[in-house]
Design a protein that fits this description.
Length: about 150
């Protein structure tokens, strides 16, 4: 019997997949527990629509990430920090601060978890970092840490 899985089922498949299982397993286990539904015309149409919606979402997210990466690639973010002792920064520049400055200076929303720093920024100067938008799409940027006047 062909069924469309409504949830992940161990050793059968993942949610949304079309699987061929024995009639008894489907009638006595999968269907009563609402783990799957019979693959009739309506279920197949829903499966096809869900797949098309998923592909459209991935396509639009990829295009948006590509556009944002083009905007930010090679740009420099300026951050002003309070000076501490010995020409160092009082505290450090964090990914959260970088994400906020990118939003303010370039108008692009960036999640702080997507900002990848090579190390802590605890001194004045220019540092490079990376912003990851989507699988395989990222932008290399730099940050200029200046002394607050």
């Amino acid at each position: 019997m062909k069924v469309v899985l409504l949830q992940d089922v161990k050793s059968i498949g993942k949610k949304g997949e079309l699987c061929n299982v024995s009639d008894g397993y489907a009638r006595n286990f999968l269907l009563p527990r609402k783990l799957a539904k019979e693959a009739n015309a309506q279920a197949m149409n829903e499966l096809k629509n869900a797949e098309a919606a998923r592909e459209y979402k991935v396509k639009t997210e990829t295009e948006k990430a590509q556009k944002n990466a083009e905007i930010l690639s090679g740009k420099t973010v300026k951050i002003y920090a309070k000076p501490g002792q010995g020409g160092k920064i009082f505290g450090s520049v964090t990914a959260k601060e970088l994400a906020e400055e990118i939003r303010q200076q370039f108008g692009v929303e960036v999640d702080k978890r997507k900002v990848v720093l090579s190390g802590d920024i605890k001194a004045f100067g220019t540092y490079s970092f990376e912003v990851k938008f989507y699988a395989g799409i990222s932008a290399a940027m730099s940050v200029a840490v200046c002394e607050k006047a």
